[in-house]
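Interim report to the steering committee. The following record documents the input for Alpha glucuronidase N-terminal domain-containing protein (696 residues).
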Amino acid sequence: MTLAVAFPNQSPRVSFAMRKLTEAILEIGETIETVDPQQQQRYDIVIASSAQEAASFGVSADTSVNEEGFEIRHDSRGGGPTLYVLANDESGAMYGVLELAERLRNCREVSLVPACVINARFPFRALKFNLPWSSYRMNACFDVQHETVRDLSFWESFLDMMAENRYNVLTLWNLHPFPYMIRPVHFPEATPFSDEELAEWKYYWTSLFRMALDRGIETYLINWNVFVSEAFREHYDPNAIDDMQFYFGDAYSTEQIKQYNRECVTQVIDEYPDLAGLGISLGERMENMTPEQRQAWIEDVYYVGMKQAGRPVKFIHRAPFSVDPQITRTSIENNGFMPEPVWVEVKFNWSHAYSSTKLLLTHGGSNGMEGYWNPPPAHYKITWMVRNEDFFTLRWAQPGFIRAHLAANSHDYVGGYYVGSECFIPAKDYSHIEDSPQMTWTYAFQKHWLYYMLWGRLLYDPETPDPVFEDALGLRYGEQAGRQLLSAYSSVCKMPMALASFYKFTWDFTLYAEGFLATNRAEYNSGQAFISLQDLLESQTFDPSYLSLRDYADRLTRSQSTEGFVTPLQLADALEADAQQGLKALSAITDESPALASEILDAKAWACLSLYFAAKLRAGVSYALYEKTGMESDRDQARQWLEAPHAAKHWEDLIRVTQSRYKPQPLMHLGETLFSWELFRPQIEEDIAFVSRPNS
């Protein structure tokens, strides 16, 4: 059967979605013919991206359809059964056609596709992507990404993924992007490239921004303020401080530097018409400036540069690290020239959003940060930054956490979310053993496809049910496997949030959940990175509703109530139950392709980590009681929980299920030391040695 499809507005966005619909129609054994509405009156499918287009077919979208929303409807008024995809803009029509393609794959027949009206919950649904050049972080894991990230084929795949998952914002982050984009009129030597090299860069950026726009994705450039290129320093300011690329330290700013950055802002806006906006990260390289001076620098450079451009652009203003909300919110509210809303970015629980759904910490501390949203802003919206510095290798999928997060933090003053990392670029996959039959993906984000699907689809529509994700897994691995695999992930992937709620953290390197690590600069290349039992004993909990090991032991020995708290033993019981439930779901999967085996082993790795953490918590409780009472039976119990068949075995199981696929890999948290789970086998033994020594 040939399906006749009419779509008057053959915009790039609708055309992109039509390619996906065509694939779905072919998969169900049908063919497709696109028809001219002026030449034919009978259609199987009609796509309208405006009220006027819908009216030309004698229909109108439901009045509840908003911007980026859509309706799928069946109607017979055109002389036969017709399915309509109706929207009020091109993005809504694109999402509606993508939804139709997905539902058609599952229903296998157009007439069986259920009707629906779906609107975007958040207007701002962003991915954070750090660029490997002029990068904020420096490590081999960034060095290996240059070629891939410069490849427009990579971006075509990445942007396809974004559009299919309903993301509408791409934020590109690096210290100083301008020399890679323009040659400033008054500072031509600040750009180190030849005309030919710069032309290649300009083609790259122009193509990237256009591909994003064609998929309904706005692109923003976000940098770190008071920086110049090395070429600028060489040719225009030899007295500038060394290492202007390093992000940490005092500001060095002159009128010439301000003029240079201001000119860069204006030229980038004018030379790249498809660039949607700019952003700043107020605080880096500004340590010796007062909050007033920092905001004044942004106003004098960015605000003025934007005003001098030939068109308005949107703006992301990262909340300053030194909290003084009144200064920044007054500056934004009174600007009067930027398109509204301005997006004010706030790190949710600093660098480790995979901790609690409660906002307990922001960048630099939380005292006073609520001043950005209380009272509610008039001209800007808060956008939560969901930073992931906790798992880069193992696949993660926990839809319950995402739904709970959105439900708890979807206030009227919130415009949306960013999802991404500072220490991981999802381009070249450098963790997996090459030429493995399991490696069916080209890029890292394709391996983590479910992670991106969960966040994107739930940000668009938090009511998206689990069967949507089960079906996506089922299309890859079979219906039965899809259901069981999502169930397993949903159970075992609670582990990083459990660890982050229990073990107090701050900035990026203070926690890396999948490695059971907590590092800082002083601990690079040392075994101290591993979270030892002693570390757990000495730490406080991040979430105040959790009791630490020693606080719990103190309450037990004093016969004090623990009601209202999550105790270490309760957390251990939950971790073990989740691990066993996940392993049970995995055991029900009978057919395994190499690609499915890779997913299963990642879920098993999370189960091993859950069981390891549970055993270690129980050991910690016993040892904390030994510290209080001096009873040797408590110390013996702690040692037993750390040995096989408990913690030590679970770590060995973790090594076993990972080393067949993953190789030692660069990890920002460890500096030049390559990460593997096997690397920390000696620390497992050190924990046992620690509890075996008498309490001094």
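Residues 2-118 form a domain with the Chitobiase; domain 2 fold (CATH 3.30.379.10). The committee is asked to note this result when reviewing the revised timeline.
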